[in-house]
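User: Okay, second chain of the day. Same drill as before: sequence in, structure tokens out.
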Amino acid sequence: MRSYSPDLTPPWKRSKPVPEVPAEPDLVVEEVSTGFCGAVIRCEKTAEGPTVTLEDRFGKHRVFPLVARGFLLEGQAVTLVRPTAGGPARPTRTASGSVAVPGARARVARAGRIYVEGRHDAELVERVWGDDLRIEGVVVEYLEGIDDLPAIVAEFAPAPDARLGVLVDHLVPGSKESRLAEQVTGDDVLVVGHPYIDVWEAVKPSSVGIAAWPTIPRGQDWKTGVCRSLGWPENTGAAWQRILSSVRSYRDLEPALLGRVEELIDFVTDPPRE
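Assistant: Same drill. Structure tokens below.
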């Protein structure tokens, strides 16, 4: 007859069961021991046991074993398991990688704004972050150049409850853009930028189906030069639509743009300091 051995572990020290979640593609989780956060790319069966491959926002891949309580989903511990055919539907993600909120209504627009340099910048931001921006109530407007940025910022009159974020093309040290940014940056104004001559370059070449963005000699119109070099018709509007249509999510953009846009969204939505 088997003897009974009571569990004398205090209740607060006992491990609580956690949900099992199928590791389906695009599910975004955080590995508990390293803090690595990324989307599920694939699950594989190996000699050491099942593994999951995650890809972070910068395109870096890491492989982790599928162990109990090994991941965080929305901040909660979970056990990832290999998905099965006909399993439960995975959480829907927005193009930026955020969790979609079914039925969520657009928030009333905030007083704060994000300004971008051109129409193409605005369309690309909308393509990837549009759902997030509507939930947060953030409006994005384009400026058609930043030569008059100091006057534009003065007219906007930024305040703690009406912050202004500005995204600038080709923001590199010593440039005209960097000097303008220094003039207007303050507690309620944040100017950030990417290093590319034009936002076209912020789209990964592999997503567009090219080996690399061509180098265009100084003095030539950059967009026309790109079309000519790639053998595309010299119609920059049609070229942009071709590029934009290749963008399906944040995975198609370079990290140098991703981080800057998210920095601006955080800045204009951060509650005023008391």
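Residues 1-5 have pLDDT under 50 and may be disordered.

User: Thanks, on to the next one.
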